[in-house]
Amino acid sequence: MPKLEVYVIDKRTLERIIAFAKGVISSDPNWNTKVVPLKYYLSDGFSSDLKKGDAIATWGVLRGAGMLLHEAKKKGIDFYYMDHSYFKSNNKNEEWYRIVKNGHSCTSLKSTGKNRWLNYFQSKNNILPWKNQVDCGPNILICPPTHAVSWFQNLNYNWCDHIICKLKNYLPMSKHKFIKVRLKPNEPIVDKVGNLIKLEPNENNISLEEDLNNSRCVIAYNSNVALQATLLGIPVIVSNISPCKPISYKLDDFKKTERSLTELFNKEPENRLNLLYWLANNQWNLSEIQDGTAWKMLKENENLIL
């Protein structure tokens, strides 16, 4: 019988983690599931009881969770990563969460039904027709990874500076003024082991809505802004850990002539709607996590063919 150790970090995420453990216990007797305070890992190290075929689960990457996930990956132990959802992440009436096996976000794309998207997440104005470039603003909006994500992903270079440098090499100087960087308003700053030191306030001069309206393309490492842009019909360029990876354009596309680039960006990605359907099938509300629906769907999704 495989073991699943579900690690509790703090009181703030306790309810979500306990709900996940309860869901597995109630719906899948094939797993020996137990809840473990993360402080045990921090004081005593990785569980010696776990072997390949077993798994862990935890929330986010801060306060030691990132170190736990790194060690699980190193030892070949599966992990279930919980965090805020792809859609309705700020819905205070009903909270939604993503759960990902062995990853930070869903980066694959599998064929799935659209009912969950239609029933829970589609609203009248939240997905717009794909925009022609003539209807977009002139800006190239860059959303860098936070300090915490850079630590967790072991980015050993300044991602944002690297992107800007490449764009300036590809674009004529007259276009450089349209490169714009948008930082996360409250950026988590962490120490060398992933403990939160502070939240760094970053002031953006205009709202995100206005920034997107002024943009012809969004370049993001993992920011959910890329998904918001996708809903608005704006092209995105993302990293390998972004949920928008299956419909991402390439940074090297900016090498093209303006006419060729416009023609490329005017074409809606073939799988835009399929991506929304797939992501809708990979996030759950708290009651679905607790009653085992999330666990069952995770297993079903895992068995779908790419």
Radius of gyration: 20 Å
Characterize the biggest β-sheet: 6 strands, mixed
Order of strands, widest sheet: 2-1-3-4-5-12
Number of strands: 12
> Strand pairing plus helix content: what structural class?
alpha/beta
The CATH first-level class of the largest domain comes to: Alpha Beta
Based on the coordinates given, report the CATH architecture of the largest domain: 3-Layer(aba) Sandwich
Shape type: globular
Task: Please write the string of helix (H) and strand (E) elements.
Answer: EHEHEHEEHEHHEEEHEHEHHEHH
Beta-strand content bin: 15-25%
Mean pLDDT score: 94
User: Total number of helical segments?
Assistant: 12
Amino-to-carboxy terminus distance: 28 Å
* CATH domain fold name of the largest domain: Rossmann fold
Segments where pLDDT lies below 50 for 5+ residues? none
> How many domains?
2
Helix content: 25-40%
Short description:
By secondary structure, this protein is α/β, with parallel strands linked by helices. The chain has helices at 11-27, 38-44, 65-75, 115-121, 147-152, 159-170, 208-213, 225-232, 258-266, 272-280, 286-290, 293-303, and strands at 3-8, 32-37, 55-59, 78-84, 96-101, 139-143, 179-181, 186-190, 196-201, 215-220, 236-238, 283-285.
Topology, please?
Layout: E1 3-8, H1 11-27, E2 32-37, H2 38-44, E3 55-59, H3 65-75, E4 78-84, E5 96-101, H4 115-121, E6 139-143, H5 147-152, H6 159-170, E7 179-181, E8 186-190, E9 196-201, H7 208-213, E10 215-220, H8 225-232, E11 236-238, H9 258-266, H10 272-280, E12 283-285, H11 286-290, H12 293-303
Parallel strand pairs: 1-2, 1-3, 3-4, 6-7, 6-10, 10-11
Antiparallel strand pairs: 4-5, 5-12, 8-9
